[in-house]
Specification:
The protein is of the alpha+beta class and about 90 residues long. The protein has a single domain, classed as secretion proteins EscU (name from scop, 3-Layer(aba) Sandwich). It contains three helices and two strands, in the order E-E-H-H-H.
Length: about 90
């Protein structure tokens, strides 16, 4: 059984043309992080791992991502878009 004591997780969402910025929909450490990761796996959602970004996001007190983190979070969504494209190509 893997230990999740130091594990941290943040779940993000962004709806183009609807949201001003990406939003944090869940975040936590330890057991809460474990549940976030398990839920992502349950719904077959890609999991992006970046320890520094999670450290910064977990400290945010608002739901909306602040401008100073836009570039880093945009890289996550670019990665996600590529993962989705590859998945679509493999289904053909």
């Amino acid at each position: 059984m893997k230990k999740f004591i130091n594990t941290k997780a943040v779940a993000l969402k962004y709806k183009a043309y609807e949201d001003n910025a990406p939003k944090i929909v869940a975040k936590g450490k330890g057991e809460i992080a474990k549940k976030i990761i398990e839920k992502a796996k349950e719904f077959d959602l890609p999991i992006f791992q970046n320890e520094l970004l999670v450290e910064n996001l977990i400290k945010i007190q608002t739901e909306e991502i602040p401008p100073e983190l836009y570039k880093a979070v945009a890289e996550v969504f670019v990665w996600l878009h590529k993962v989705e494209q590859n998945a679509e190509l493999s289904r053909r």
